[in-house]
Amino acid sequence: MVEQIDSSPVRQPRVGLFVTCLVDLFRPNVGFAALKLLQRAGFDVVIPSQQTCCGQPAYNNGDARDAREIAKQVIDVFAGYDYTVVPSGSCAGMIKEHYPRLFDADAEYYEKATTLSSRCFELTEFLDGIGDGAALPEMPSCSYTYHDSCSGLRELGIKQQPRALLARVSGLSMLEMQDSNVCCGFGGTFCVKYPDISGRMVTDKVEAICATGADMVLGGDLGCLMNIAGRLKRIDSTVSVYHVAEVLAGKTDIPPIGGNSS
Which of 40, 178, 218, 226 suits 5 as a labelling partner, its CA being 20 to 30 A distant? Predict the structure, then answer.
C-alpha cells in the first residue's frame, strides 16, 4: 500500500491585531512593528477595519452602559480568530479581565467575552510564549531601561516577557531602574483628574530613568510612554523613548516618542 501524503498547505494560525486608539492616532509605527513581529513568527495577521476603542475610558469612569456597547463591537469583530493580540497591557487587560465582568448578567455575551478573553494576549506575552519563533534584529550598541505599566504588570503579570525578548536583541544592554514597577502617573483619565499628583509621579519616574544612565526607556503601553516622553522633553533630557515592539521589530528609524533623542 502506498502511503498517501497530505500535500495541502498547513494553515497558519490567524491573529486579529487589536491596534488600540493611541497607537492608531499617535504612533502607528507601533502597529506596523507589531504586525511585522507577528508575521515573522509565522502567523496570518488580520487587522479588522471595524475595530474601535476597547471601552476602557468609559469603564474606568463608571459608564458601564457605554462600555458594554463598545465591548460588544470589539467582541463581535474579533470573534473567529485563533488569537487576539494587543500591543498594550491596559487594553489587553480590559479585554481579558474586565469584559467578562461587564456581561455577568448577559449569558450570550458573557460566553462570547469569556471566549475572547481566553484567546487574548498582550504582545510581548504572546511573542515570548506562543509566538516564540519570531526573529529579532541586531541593534547598534546602546543601553535601555524598562518601565512596567500598571495594567500589564498587575492585571496580566507582564514583567519578564519583554525583558526575555529584549535579551535576545544583539547590541542591547539592560540597566534596571529603581522602582520600575511604580506608576508613571498617567493612568488614563487619572492624569486629567489629578494633574498635580500625576505630575509628581512622572517626575519621580523620570528621575529614576535618568539615574540609570540608559540611552533609551522602553515600555509596552503607549500612554505611559507618551507621559514619560513629555516629562523628559520638558527637562531637555536626551533619553529616547520607544515602545518595546518598535525595538524588537527593528523599526527605530523614525524619531522616538515625544521627539527627544540622543
Answer: 40
